[in-house]
């Protein structure tokens, strides 16, 4: 168990044997809780009391996350579209599910997903514990009814025991499946980066060019991409043109004023989560910066904060240099389970 968790690069983690036995005398073997270190400036990791980060629950969630058994034709796992080495995004403009079905949207990074106030580009889900049913059933993703998924897990040679251990005797159910996936995903937290050291007072952590970029960022961007998470988690129209197929948050609220608004993404690890925007329309950070420099597409309802900036080419390069310092990992990492 410990070895398994340590192998995960995002769990740089101390796996602490917490005094679980003292809490619950009926199960003296109540396993360790995972503690996930978070960068300075982050709030403590939000973990709902109903779903503690028990190490065996996190490990089960990790295994399920990478297991294609949860898709109709057994070819697609959550990890097919949320790849560890791409900070849990997939590098595609739009995601491809079972049978090559293409969805409408770009797969967002799951890094720091525990901190999101709502989920999906339009905030269409509120809790990790309920979110997982969406990709499971979506015909463009895994295309498997929950009952069918549970049947496979119940018939599996190993899963029933793993569920029972992680959930005090409960086997695979909609609740235990989604709780395990949620517990694992909460452990996907950024490692500290140069930006964090800079925020903590070490000015030499950023190069002079990146510091120039940060100053521009603070002037033009940080009203929406704010704080250590680089997002307010609010919904904004940043001048991205939309179609009726995907009107943004209007899809959820039916309010015409929400047409073309999307949740402001965190920019942590943004250098490895291309392509960008809800529909993956931009391949590079240079193209994103050009979008803002031009003042967006001038779409109806566009935020007044997005307006022509007329930056010099050096300033645009500085902004990109700053965004690159938010990267998390120097090299590709492998979290895919070998078991
Ligand atoms: C076929 C590719 C694909 C598969 C498979 C897939 N996802 Fe996703 N995931 C996406 C896309 C695309 C989005 C964005 C959808 C949207 O915003 O409407 C997304 C969004 C999410 C989000 C919201 C993140 C955020 O910041 O809002 C979570 C959490 C998530 N997926 C978890 C999972 C889990 C758990 C599984 C497996 C049960 C899974 N995904 C399977 C493509 C995929
Ligand atoms: C009015 C709020 C707002 C401002 C100001 C703003 N952004 Fe954004 N940003 C957003 C929203 C909303 C999205 C998602 C748009 C979409 O998906 O269509 C976004 C997306 C991005 C992305 C893509 C992230 C991804 O994962 O796809 C990057 C990079 C980015 N912004 C950088 C910047 C920079 C650099 C500036 C300043 C020049 C800036 N933003 C200013 C709201 C804003």
TrEMBL record:
Heme c 1 binds at residues 78, 81-82. Its cofactor is heme. It comes from the Bacteria. It is found in: Periplasm. Residues 56-182, 208-327 form the Cytochrome c domain. Heme c 2 binds at residues 221, 224-225. Binds 2 heme groups per subunit. Binds 2 heme groups. SUPFAM superfamilies: Cytochrome c (SSF46626). This is Methylamine utilization protein MauG.
């Amino acid at each position: 168990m410990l070895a398994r968790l340590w192998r995960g690069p995002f769990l740089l983690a101390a796996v602490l044997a917490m005094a679980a036995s003292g809490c619950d005398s009926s199960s003296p073997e109540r396993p360790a809780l995972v503690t996930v270190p978070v960068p300075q400036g982050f709030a403590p990791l939000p973990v709902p009391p109903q779903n503690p980060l028990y190490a065996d629950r996190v490990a089960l969630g990790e295994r399920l996350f990478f297991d294609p058994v949860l898709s109709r034709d057994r070819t697609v796992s959550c990890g097919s579209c949320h790849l560890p080495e791409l900070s849990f995004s997939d590098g595609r403009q739009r995601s491809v599910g079972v049978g090559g079905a293409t969805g409408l949207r770009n797969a967002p990074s799951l890094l720091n997903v525990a901190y999101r106030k709502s989920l999906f580009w339009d905030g269409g889900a509120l809790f990790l514990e309920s979110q997982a049913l969406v990709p499971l059933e979506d015909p463009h993703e895994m295309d498997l009814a929950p009952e069918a998924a549970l049947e496979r897990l119940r018939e599996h040679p190993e899963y029933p025991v793993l569920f029972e251990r992680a959930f005090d005797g409960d086997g695979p159910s909609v609740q235990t499946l989604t709780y395990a996936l949620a517990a694992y995903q909460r452990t996907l937290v950024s490692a500290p980066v140069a930006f964090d050291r800079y925020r903590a007072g070490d000015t030499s952590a950023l190069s002079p060019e990146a510091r120039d970029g940060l100053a521009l960022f603070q002037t033009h961007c940080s009203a929406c991409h704010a704080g250590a998470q680089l997002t307010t988690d609010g919904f904004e129209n940043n001048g991205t043109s939309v179609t009726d197929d995907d009107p943004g948050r209007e899809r959820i609220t039916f309010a015409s004023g929400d047409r073309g608004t999307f949740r402001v993404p965190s920019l942590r690890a943004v250098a490895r989560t291309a392509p960008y925007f809800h529909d993956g329309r931009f391949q590079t950070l240079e193209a994103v910066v050009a979008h803002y420099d031009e003042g967006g597409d001038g779409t109806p309802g566009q935020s007044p904060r997005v307006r022509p900036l007329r930056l010099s080419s050096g300033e645009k390069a500085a902004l990109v240099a700053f965004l690159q310092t938010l990267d998390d990992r120097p090299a590709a990492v492998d979290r895919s389970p070998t078991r």
